Amino acid sequence: MVNIAVLVSGGGTNLQALIDAEQAGKIPHGKITLVLASNPKAYALERAAKAGIPTAVVSRKVYPDQDAYDQAIVNELKKNDTDLVILAGFLSILGSTVIRAYPDRIINIHPSLIPSFCGKGFYGLKVHEAALEKGVKVTGATVHLVNEIPDGGKILLQKAVEIEDGDTPEVLQRRVMEQAEWILLPKAAEMMAEKISAEEEK
Ligand code: GRF
């Protein structure tokens, strides 16, 4: 069974989609064994507690520099025998120490069709504001492997979502979550867990 750690910063709706998928038997090769938040107030922590999932908080501002923060993250992940790391609305930067500790084992959900509207500074509502500003007719979500380049890793899954007349950033964000993010992330979690299980059997 692949141990999954979900890293969160906010409301945790993507985490909830993962929890619901696991409980529905849609992630047979994996089990969420840790929810790690970048801040103690993340509602995602409530969702984890309700589901009986162990939690941890590793807050960037507590650490003097990126390296100390990265080391604290890796220590927490190793303590929980993590095999797969899922970034679900996680807003802190992960440095190379974390990336190197989990090569091709960290995935992220980004709320656009990469390479559009991604990279430094593109997160949360800003992504949807940029899409509406540009006037694209279709947007969506992407699950990709995490490397040192923000939103730069190999694309694993994508799903398109129509933009409708009169969409506000908030309305569009919700549609992208419902129609794309909450579908793609559980699918990607099982895809990666199955792959890791197969590799461990060799
Ligand atoms: C959302 O904008 C989502 O697209 C991105 O992180 C934000 C918060 O997601 N991945 P969540 O509700 O905390 O999962």
Protein described:
By secondary structure, the chain is an alpha/beta fold. It has one domain: 3-Layer(aba) Sandwich (Rossmann fold). 40% of the residues lie in helices and 21% in strands. The protein has 6 helices and 7 strands, in the order βαβαβαβαβαββα. It has helices spanning 13-23, 44-50, 66-79, 96-101, 125-134, 169-201; strands at 2-8, 30-37, 55-57, 84-87, 106-110, 138-145, 155-162. The protein has a 7-stranded mixed sheet with strand order 3-2-1-4-5-6-7, with helices on one face. Helix 1 links the parallel strand 1 and strand 2. Helix 1 (13-23) packs across helix 6 (169-201). The longest helix has 33 residues, at 169-201. The chain is globular, with a radius of gyration of 16 Å. The two termini are 15 Å apart. Bound molecules: 5-O-phosphono-beta-D-ribofuranosylamine.
CATH homologous superfamily grouping = Formyl transferase, N-terminal domain
Describe the sheet with the most strands. Answer: 7 strands, mixed
**Inertia-based shape:** globular
Return residue spans where pLDDT drops below 50 for at least 5 consecutive residues: none
Tally of separate domains: 1
Helical region count? 6
Estimated share of beta-strand residues: 15-25%
Beta strand count: 7
Helix content: 40-55%
Radius of gyration: 16 Å
**How do the strands of the widest beta sheet line up side by side?**
3-2-1-4-5-6-7
Q: What's the helix-strand series?
A: EHEHEHEHEHEEH
Query: Do you know the CATH architecture?
Result: 3-Layer(aba) Sandwich
| CATH class term | Alpha Beta
Would you give the CATH topology?
Answer: Rossmann fold
List bound small molecules.
5-O-phosphono-beta-D-ribofuranosylamine
Kindly report how far apart the N and C termini lie. Answer: 15 Å
- Return the structural class: alpha/beta
* Rounded mean pLDDT score: 96
